[in-house]
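Minutes, project check-in
Item: structure for the 164-residue chain
Input as provided by the requester:
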Amino acid sequence: MARGEAAAERHRGAAAALVEAGVVTGLIAGGAMLFFLCVASGWLGPGFLAPVKAFAGVLLRRGALGGGSGATVLGLLVHGAVSVCIGVAFTAIAVRERTGPMASVGAGILFAIGAWVVMTFVAARFLDPPLWELARSMPFTWFAAHLVYGMAMGWARQLRDELR
């Protein structure tokens, strides 16, 4: 194998490892966020599965909240896909520096606050009416769920670094 081909292969391997780490990071963070959001939503009134179904609103619009198991599965898939994308983006940015646990979690929280701004005031507001209504009905809980996401994302990144 020529020197250039070997370097390209190493680069592809590094990129694949970064994407894999980002997928795992996003799924861990998304799971933590969704658990928090569903418990809070069940406790505050909209219902345990309301957030999951609201995520499906990007495709089902207002029919998402009244949907059955199909809306629930679709909501899980949508939330998982978005969580993975955010996890990969965070990992691609954060992987450049080895940091301590507090810095990693702090970076995750800052990144998640940025995601909260975009997801709330752009994506939910203009693309997902049920999610926009849910976010407006419990604004502190919606924001806190993103903080949980950020903490879990930073923790997952730190755990990955420690396991390597």
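Outcome recorded: The mean pLDDT is 88.
No further action items on this chain.
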